Target: SLAM family member 5-like
Amino acid sequence: MIDTFLFFCLCSWSLAGVFGVDAVQSVSVTEGDSVSLNVTDVQTNDEIEWRFGGILIAEINIKNKKSTVYSDSAGGRFRDRLKLDQTGSLFITNTSTNHSGRYTVTSSRRNTLLNTFNLSVYAHLPVPVISNISSQHSSSSSSSSSSNCSFLCSVVNVGDVTLSWYKGNSLLSSISVSDLNRSLSLPLEVEYQEKNSYSCVTNNPIRNQTTHLDICEHCQPCPDCICCCYTFEAVIRLALSALVGVAAVAVLVNDIRSTGSEQHGRD
Model:
């Protein structure tokens, strides 16, 4: 039993030395950014090799600081974009979405896997566009009216994003796409003169863009109507202002009459 346990420990130690023990590190950036993939556990006489999806893209001898970058490997996607520092860390400048993938760094001298990186490069997020696609107006016999407006929020040429409608901070609906260069659209229907706030959001794992819906501007009961989302509040304010004005005039008139009566009494 003890011999079996010792054999298992020795095998585990040997495998750790050959394959490494570091977990995959996830790194996310936006297209056009630069990124640094930092190697660890480097020894002074190591010969470091970097691979992208199993393809050798760069190597460096730590002892003599001699490095080589294979710009034409992996279909030339890394041309003029790779750099190695003296520690063996890899720098990718001006990243693009075709740089997404798995990167491994090994010590060829020790036959040891040092680090594994899963790089995700996301395209720039466009600002979502909201358009009014329909408006229906109806009037009842009591002369009260209501209007429903239909909106469409859209983004084009996107990949790996989610498009969502929010009512305040509450999610109403969403749609996602993982392919590149796709277009997304999401409808929404609201009532005219509704006081809730709505927003359309597009996001990926590292960024988001938001467009707020102005119901007053985009939802009118008729083509020639003037924006009157807050008509009721405006009428109340006007009425209160009128009452204050009337009261002020009454006080002024009363004061004039009182002053006139006092002067008449003295005479």
User: Anything to note?
Assistant: The domain at 129-231 is CATH 2.60.40 (Immunoglobulin-like). The longest strand covers residues 145-158. The helical segments are 2-19, 215-218, 231-266.
